[in-house]
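Render ATP synthase F(0) complex subunit e, mitochondrial in 3D.
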Amino acid sequence: MSAAPVRQVSSLFKIGRWSALAVGLSYGFLHARTLRNEASERRIEHEYARKVALIEEAKKKYAESKSPKGESGSEQFNFDDPSFDADKWAKHLEAKFN
């Protein structure tokens, strides 16, 4: 029994295989770098949005702590409301300044 003869592979086929491997590795490297940069940008934007939300929350709490509490007639009046009661507002001002 003799061994089967070894078949010669053409040089063009070998070059094509190595070229495809090189192109695939290059594409993978560039694509991974792009995804990493996008993830980093999203992380930075998310962190910025979180800080802005914390600042807004702190501003609201500060405004609440500085607002007068326990005063009689500490109502809020909306002058743009169609059912605005001017007499009630005048009585409120009169009670506040007398």
